[in-house]
Amino acid sequence: YNNTLPSPWLNIFFSLLPLLVFVFLFWFIFMRAQGGQNQVMQFGQSRAKRYGKENKVATLFPDVAGHEEAKRELIEVVDFLKHPQKYQQIGAEIPKGVLLVGPPGTGKTLLARAIAGEADCPFYSVSASEFMEMFVGVGAARVRDLFAQAVEKSPCIIFIDELDAIGKVRSAVSPMGGHDEREQTLNQLLVEMDGFDTRTGVIIMAATNRPETLDPALLRAGRFDRQVLVDRPDITGREAILKIHSRNVKLSPTLDIHIVAARTPGFVGADLANVVNEAALLAVRKNKTVVDQSDFEDAIDRVVAGLQKKTRLINQKEKAIVARHEMGHALVTYFTPDTDP
User: Fold this and answer.
1) What is the C-alpha separation between 193 and 116, in angstroms, rounded?
2) Spatial distance between the Cα atoms of 206 and 163, rounded to a whole number of angstroms
3) Which helix (DSSP H) or strand (DSSP E) does residue 195 occupy?
4) Which alpha helices (DSSP H) does the chain contain, by range?
5) Which pTM value belongs to this model?
C-alpha cells in the first residue's frame, strides 16, 4: 500500500464538506430567525404590572386622605366590582372609564390603588409611555394584549398612568412626515374601549395632570365618561394627610398638627410627605428623640425656600432694602382686619 495516496475516508470527508457547511449555515440562519420571532412576540406583550392574590394591593381608602369628594365618587366603582348583580338587575351600567384629573402629587395613583385594594380584585398598572416603542405597531399590540389579559382575569381594574403620553390630540399631518406610532396606539385604545362590554367587570381607569391636551374622542360618553377631580387639599385635608404620613414618626406631645396644616397652603400630598420626612431628619440632626413644632417650621421653610445659606454674605445696602421690603409686608398685615397676629 502506498502511504502517499490519500485515504478513502479523507476523500469522502472532503466531498461531503460543502454539504456540511451548507447544512450548518441553514441551521444557524433558522435559529436566528426563530430568536427574532420570539423577540417580536415579546415586544408585543403588555408590560403592565399585575397585582392579584399573590401580591395583593395593600392600599385602602383609609390610607387616602384629603379627597373625600373623590372617594365618594369612586365608592360606586368599588361597589360595582363587588356586587355587579344589583346593577345588572335594574339595567344600570357603570361608567366604562374613569379619568382622574389633578395636579401632580395629589394622589391620583394612590386613589386607583385604593380602589383595587377595596374591591379585592386584580389590578393592572401601566404607564402610558410603556406602550411606545421604536418599532411601528408594537404599542397597538401591547394594548390588545393588556385588554385580553384583563378580560381573562375579570373582574379587574386597568390603570393607565400619565394618559397624555399617548392620548394627545391627533393632528391631520404627522409631525415626522410618516407613520405616527403614538396615534396608532391611541386608535387601538379607542377601538378596545369601544368593543368593551361593561358586564365583563373590567373598569378602565387613567390619570393625567394635562386633561386639556387629551383627544376629544377619549373623553366622549362610552369611553372616559366620568372625570374625577383630585385637587389640592384644603386645611382639613392637609391635616388628615399629615396625620397619615406621621403615623410612624415619634411626635412631641406639644406638637399641633393643625398649625402645620395652616402653614402649608397649596401643598399636595407628596409635598406634605416630604415635610414630615424633612422634619424627622432635622430632629435627628439636632439629636432629639421626638419631632417637635420647631422641626416642622424649619422643614416647611426648607421645602419652600430650599437650604439655608449661612455662608452667603449680604452688604449693608442689600440688608436695608430687604428690611424695608419685609417691613412693608408687616405693616400691611398689621392693618389688615381679621389677620393672624
Assistant:
1) 20
2) 6
3) none
4) 8-43, 68-82, 84-90, 108-119, 138-152, 164-167, 181-194, 216-219, 235-245, 257-262, 269-285, 293-305, 316-334
5) 0.73
Neighbouring C-beta atoms of residue 303, cutoff 10 Å? 17
Report which DSSP code applies to 171: P
* Burial state string for 36-48 with b = 16 or more CB within 10 A and e = fewer than 16: eeeeeeebbebeb
C-alpha distances in angstroms, 171 versus 126, 183, 192?
A: 25, 9, 21
* Contacts (Cβ under 8 Å, ≥6 apart) of 53: none
The number of beta carbons lying within 10 Å of the beta carbon of residue 230 is 27
Distance between CA atoms of 212 and 190, rounded to whole angstroms?
A: 18
Give catalytic residues, as residue numbers. 326
26-63 tens-digit pLDDT: 777 766 655 554 554 455 566 677 776 667 777 888 88
- At 177, is the pLDDT very low, low, confident or very high (cuts 50, 70, 90)? very low
Q: Write the CB contacts of 332 (distance below 8 Å, at least 6 apart in sequence).
A: none
pLDDT at 33: 59
CB 277 within 8 A of CB 295: no
pLDDT, tens digit (0-9, with 9 covering 90-100), for 274-289: 999 999 999 999 999 9
Q: In angstroms, what CA-CA distances link 213 with 217, 218, 250, 261, 309?
A: 12, 11, 44, 33, 40
Measured at the CA of 203, the angle between CA 160 and CA 237, to 5 degrees, comes to 70
Mean pLDDT of the chain: 83
127 φ, ψ to 5°?
-85, 140
